[in-house]
Amino acid sequence: METANGEAVRSPISDEVNRPQNETESAGQGLLERAFARENLKRAWKRIKANKGAAGIDGLDIDQTADHLLTVWATIRQQLLSGIYRPSPVRRVVIPKSGGGECELGIPTVTDRLIQQALLQVLQPLLDPTFSEHSYGFRPGRCAQDAVLAAQRYVSSGRKVVVDVDLEKFFDRVDHDILIDRLRKRITDWAVIRLIRAYLDAGTLIDGAIEKSRCGTPQGSPLSPLLANVLLDEVDRELERRGHCFVRYADDANVYVRSQKAGQRVMALLRRLYEKLHLSVNESKSAVASAFGRKFLGYELWSARGEVKRAASYKAQKQFKQRIRWYTRRSCGRSLQQVVDELRPYILGWKAYFGLSQTPKVWRELDEWIRHRLRAIQLKQWKRSSTIYRELRALGASERVAQKVAGNACRWWRNSRLELNRVLNIAWFDSLGLPRFS
């Protein structure tokens, strides 16, 4: 393993610990032996460390857990292989949703995240090839952009009505018995099934008391996305059998049809399929509607001269602007360079995700709007007319331009759209490292 500064330290997983006790144990617990082999655990630890994350109910962070495992891992591994290991309950964290409401996350201990990640790395190569080609969420080599492109192809083929289905509190309502039953049809290793069941039954620590539940798989656990695909693949296969064109990303599913009537039939079918899994359709967020303007994974489709194109949804753009306003608030007491340095990773991340958007005008307008806000910050920081005049002249502005801008010293927002654009221009912002959309 590694320390926080990246230096190698003695791994808590020694070669002796990883040697099978006897042939019977190795044969009977093959998947677990592979999951907790030294090299697989090293890869799992690297991933857990990269993901960072908060401590679980034991209060141990990444580095503290590394020190702890140096002395206890041999015992934990033996408990795992013998089937007597009991995971810790998850720590509940409630976070607000961008669209309103709250989302409950379950934070396992770092040790349990390591175990789940190691198990995931062994199970995913076995299970992923069995999933539908229409499933894109949390799968190696697939991403949300691939799902958006598939949706665009279906709409371009003439299927301009979408059956947009959102499941109500999906991760909170996964039925443990149904999930284990579907998992047993794909995995014959009872030791693995027993360990996964132990994680599902571990419960949640709420106000000092452990709350048990027969449903739900915690968001925040490495295994949860894989288990979600195991459960929902049954619905995918039925849609495939009926010849439907659809895209699923985790619990978001869109089926593309040619008419409202066909869409209503598909919606009725999906309600029956999900009911069989003890899942409920969120009626307020689900609909049979035009595929144009309907949000999917932050994107929406629109038509231009008969061609179907992609765009960042209005809601995504609104949320982006709200975040930019927060970064560029004019009462933050930071230099403009510091503001740009904080903006840079957020803009680059947003651009990477919404890079499929076919809306050059929107990109240009966002660029101009961000630069407008940053110019206003710079004017406020210069503040005095004499300072503004001096700084602009130093940047190469003519005397006329410097005087005109300085004469409107306290009107930062309006002033930042005037002659200032010629001095604090695109090249100047490029020199500060501000990313561009267009």
How is this structure best summarized?
With 438 residues, this protein is α+β, with helices and mostly antiparallel strands. The protein is 52% helix and 12% strand. The protein has 20 helices and ten strands.
Helix and strand topology:
Blueprint: H1 15-18, H2 23-28, H3 30-35, H4 38-51, H5 62-82, E1 90-96, E2 102-107, H6 110-127, H7 144-156, E3 161-166, H8 170-173, H9 176-184, H10 190-200, E4 204-206, E5 209-211, H11 224-241, E6 245-249, E7 252-257, H12 260-276, E8 287-290, E9 299-304, E10 307-312, H13 314-327, H14 336-353, H15 360-382, H16 385-394, H17 399-406, H18 412-415, H19 420-423, H20 426-432
Parallel strand pairs: 1-4
Antiparallel strand pairs: 1-2, 3-7, 3-8, 4-5, 6-7, 9-10
Helix pairs in contact: 4-6, 9-10, 9-11, 16-17
